[in-house]
Amino acid sequence: MAGDRARSRAVLAALADLAVPRECGGCGRPGTPWCDACRARLDDVPRQLSPRVDPGVPVWAMARYGGPMASAVVNLKEHRRRDLAPVLGRVLADGILSLAQWGDLPASDRLALVPAPTRAWAARSRGGDTVTALAREAADVLGGRVRVVPALVTAAWTRDSAGLGAGARGANLAGAVRLRRPLPSALVGAGAGPAVPVVVVDDVLTTGATVAQAVRRLRRSGAAVTGAVVLAGA
Ligand SMILES: [Zn+2]
């Protein structure tokens, strides 16, 4: 009996090793998917960014790009470490809570988080839309009446903006950000009470062009966009 139990435990441990990556997604330390040192380094205060392309709303980064944050984003997006989505989603949620407490964002229990658009094939090749996954994790932490509205899509003909300069990115994106479907009535003030405030979410901000296009498109549809949050500014 004891031998059976030991064997079952060994089998379960082996299965757990298969399911949970054994390297920290921030620093590569073995034995844990996310180590305490990386957790502490991401415990930062949000800071406002001044992107080259003005998005028309304040944009905040939750941490510096580099170190564990950069590794975690790359591991999530490029190496399909989906176990890092809750880690980074919590960083986003903590930042939104701080900003709401400071009065820089509306109350954090009634918000619509709209992920910045990703091109469909880019999302597929990266194993899903990671920005939407991050926003959902953040919404789970914030609870209440926080909802994720993946309303935006980038037209199929745009090129991947990675590697393009600010001007090229703007031209590449101009008119390319579209609504997947009409916005929910609560976001345009057509339901009961005032419109739910909208916050645009992205992973890493480089020039600001993507967030700017997203804000413009949402506002044109009647949404009350109050700000944008990103994990980090590159
Ligand atoms: Zn680590």
Approximate strand percentage? 15-25%
**Sequence stretches where pLDDT stays below 50 over 5 or more residues:** none
Average pLDDT? 85
Distance between the termini: 57 Å
CATH class membership of the largest domain: Alpha Beta
Question: How many domains, in number, for the residues?
Answer: 2
Which geometry do the CA atoms define?
globular
| Main β-sheet description | 6 strands, mixed
Query: How many β strands by DSSP?
Result: 8
Q: Helix/strand/pairing class, anyone? A: alpha/beta
Number of helices: 8
Report on this structure.
The model has no long low-confidence stretch (mean pLDDT 85). The chain folds into two domains: 1-41, no CATH class; 43-233, Rossmann fold. The radius of gyration is 19 Å and the shape is globular. 39% of the residues lie in helices and 16% in strands. With 234 residues, the protein is an alpha/beta fold. The chain has helices at 2-19, 36-41, 67-77, 85-102, 120-125, 130-142, 166-173, 209-220; strands at residues 47-49, 59-64, 112-115, 147-148, 152-154, 177-179, 198-205, 225-233. The chain has eight helices and eight strands. Residues 24, 26-27, 29, 35, 37-38, 68 line the site of zinc ion.
